[in-house]
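Dear H.,

Thanks for agreeing to be a second pair of eyes. The structure we're designing against is below in token form, covering all 176 positions.
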């Protein structure tokens, strides 16, 4: 029986391009189509890929998103991006999917079916990036949802939009 598109596993830029250890510049070129990093992006990306923590303050349009997206693709596991802006989250997830990156958004606008698909993707390791709202990570069941997943990194995007963001981090640590 011929295989249909539905029967094929989802394409993943990280699986297809980087079966071994991915190098940040290779990801930048092969997935995003850029020949070089801008400003201090490379320094930040390499630091995070190596397991370091970073607080990145770049002007709008300077490529902050690449500073967590590329490390998530270079490291094994799921990159979790906490973002309070659902519209931006939707745009980022759509852009990631167009690049062949297996991305999803977990927020109040998704259907039950979408939630089930995301849950399956997390448990099977079929997601590269998961964008999630702060409210969702505080809901009962989120820890269990990601509990068995290999986490590549945790990123907080648009941190200035978090109400009481300092209290948020100290009250809800997700350290292993």
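And this is the sequence the design step returned. I haven't edited it by hand at all.
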């Amino acid at each position: 029986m011929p295989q249909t598109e539905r029967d094929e596993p989802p394409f993943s830029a990280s699986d297809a391009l980087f079966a071994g250890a991915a190098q940040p510049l290779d990801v930048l070129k092969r997935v995003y189509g850029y020949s070089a990093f801008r400003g201090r992006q490379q320094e930040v990306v390499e630091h995070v890929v190596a397991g370091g923590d970073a607080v990145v303050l770049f002007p709008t349009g300077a490529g902050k998103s690449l500073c967590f997206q590329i490390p998530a693709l270079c490291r094994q596991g799921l990159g979790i991006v906490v973002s309070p802006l659902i519209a931006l989250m939707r745009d980022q997830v759509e852009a990631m999917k167009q690049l062949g990156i297996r991305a999803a958004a977990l927020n109040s606008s998704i259907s039950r079916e979408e939630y089930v698909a995301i849950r399956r993707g997390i448990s099977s390791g079929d997601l590269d990036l998961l964008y999630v709202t702060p409210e969702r990570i505080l809901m009962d069941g989120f820890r269990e949802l990601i509990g068995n997943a290999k986490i590549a990194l945790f990123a907080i995007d648009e941190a200035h939009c978090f109400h009481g963001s300092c209290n948020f981090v100290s009250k809800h640590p997700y350290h292993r």
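Two observations from my side: Strands lie at 78-82, 103-106, 129-132, 151-156. The chain has a mean pLDDT of 84.

Warmly,
E.
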